[in-house]
Structures are given as C-alpha cells and as structure tokens.
Amino acid sequence: MAGRSKRPRSRSMKIIKGDRVVVLSGKDAGLEGTVERVIPAAGKVIVEGVNVAKRHQAPTRNVQQGGIIDKAMPIDASNVAVVSPTDGKPTRVGYRFTPDGAKVRVCRRTGADL
Description:
mainly beta, six-stranded antiparallel sheet, two-stranded antiparallel ribbon, 10 strands, 40% strand, elongated
C-alpha cells in the first residue's frame, strides 16, 4: 500500500452554499441554519449558528482585538438535510433537466425547484 493516500477523494455534493438546512443528528439536532461554506474533499459543510466552538484568537493586523471568539466548525454533510421551500420540512435533493438542457435541483418531497 505504498502509493495509497489517506486523503478522501473529492465527491459531488448536493448541498450548496446558501441552502437552508436542518441538522438531523448530533448535539445540535433540530437546529436550522444557512450553509456558509462547503468542503467537498472532506464531505463537510459549515452551517451558520450550528456546531459553534470557542476559539482563542491572538491579536493580529487583521484582528486588532484578541480574545475568545465563537467559530462555526464543520459538520458532516450526511447529518444535514435541505429544507423544502414549499413546506419547510427536510427533504432529499434530486435533479431534472429543463427543456433547454439546464440541470436544475429539485425537492424530492414536493417536486419544487430549489
């Protein structure tokens, strides 16, 4: 196993930045938030207000004031579900093609476009 890498391969993710998601499991189960960042290589997402940790920040040129800050940490993408725009419940994401050939994400529960 000499040439084998420990880093997981990049994978396609159905959750994108700006999606409204609900946490399905873990200490923040049931909380809703907006996806701030997607990390496809690790299969993780950073959701606003979810999985927040305290971090000690030293003063730098960018951050004049040091101290203890709240920082949103990554959560596994399998532990969140996209919220349906029509009824506000968690849903799976599917795809369909429009007549002009564009790929569109759709809600599996209601069939509405995301």
